[in-house]
Amino acid sequence: MLRYVIRRLIVLGVSLAVASALIFSVVELVPGDPASFMLGTGAQPETVAALRQQMGLDQPLPLRYAHWIAGILQGDFGQSFTYKTPIAGMIADRMQVSLPLALMALALSTLIAFPVGLYAAARRGRTGDATVMGATQIGIALPNFWFAMLLVLLFAVKLQWLPAGGFPGWGDPLAALRSLLLPAIALALPQAAILARVLRSALIETQEQDYIRTARAKGLTRGQTLRRHALRNALIPVLTIMGMQFSFLLAGAIIIENVFYLPGLGRMIFQAITQRDLIVVQSAVLVLVFAVIAVTFLVDLAYAAVDPRLRKR
């Protein structure tokens, strides 16, 4: 098991190093100069050159990359060109919204998907299975931003049970959770539909195994066989999807954050792109990439916990 963990950590480190170089290169290739953007089109060339020197943009790309990575390794992500504040603090503030939102959405999608997937697999080929699969297809096809607006109209405008948008901070935890509930539901619905379909397919495939037939021959019902024997062996593809979903929910909630006016990480990246605040974009995207790679590493460890055969590789 230790060798397996060490190998995965090496892969994690190499992936992060390659990702940092790609992120820096791609962002630097984007057209437009941050200094010219900040000063406006009427700025004098000498003024633009002075600002570029002050921001360090006149240095060679390899040197700028080396300074950026050296700062990150020391916990210093640099300073925002636009807001003149440390980027580490900006990311930490935004993660207080994006991370709980992603965790809430993932928890809701899992709570919905597992019973739905088990129900559909236990009734394979019957009316209940067809009904569930049809509902999940609708859930996948439904745009989450449109569903989010419906939730706002129903629960915020008509019933006035939940706030329509904004985030009050964690000074009042109950108010903070209430403000994240509607966006979490909007994000969770399509993810739950995907996860339920994957779980159903994995369970159906597992039911064809000999040990499942043996369990049925001993007198267990189909539902008991699914819960006691098939579910654990069907978890590997499900864990893969859950890891991908968490990464998407953390990094891909830009539209939902804008619908609900949430000051999350995705919205910060969008604003930084429009303001040509390149160092914020680079640092925030690298944090998201690290989160994705770290989740992948944890999923690999979960694989080893579920399937002991992987520990020997």
UniProtKB/TrEMBL annotation:
The protein depicted here goes by the name Peptide ABC transporter
What the record says about family reads: Belongs to the binding-protein-dependent transport system permease family.
Q: Which organism is it from?
A: Paracoccus zhejiangensis
Alphabetically list the UniProt keywords.
Cell membrane, Membrane, Transmembrane, Transmembrane helix, Transport
Give the stretches traversing the membrane.
9-30, 99-122, 134-157, 177-199, 234-260, 280-306
Domain ABC transmembrane type-1, first and last residues per copy: 95-299
Q: Name one GO cellular component term.
A: plasma membrane
Write down the membrane topology.
Multi-pass membrane protein
* Matching PROSITE patterns: ABC_TM1
Q: List the InterPro entries hit by this protein, alphabetically.
A: BPD_transp_1_N (IPR045621), MetI-like (IPR000515), MetI-like_sf (IPR035906)
Cited Pfam families: BPD_transp_1, BPD_transp_1_N
Listed GO MF terms:
dipeptide transmembrane transporter activity
**Where's it found, cell-wise?**
Cell membrane
Main localization is membrane
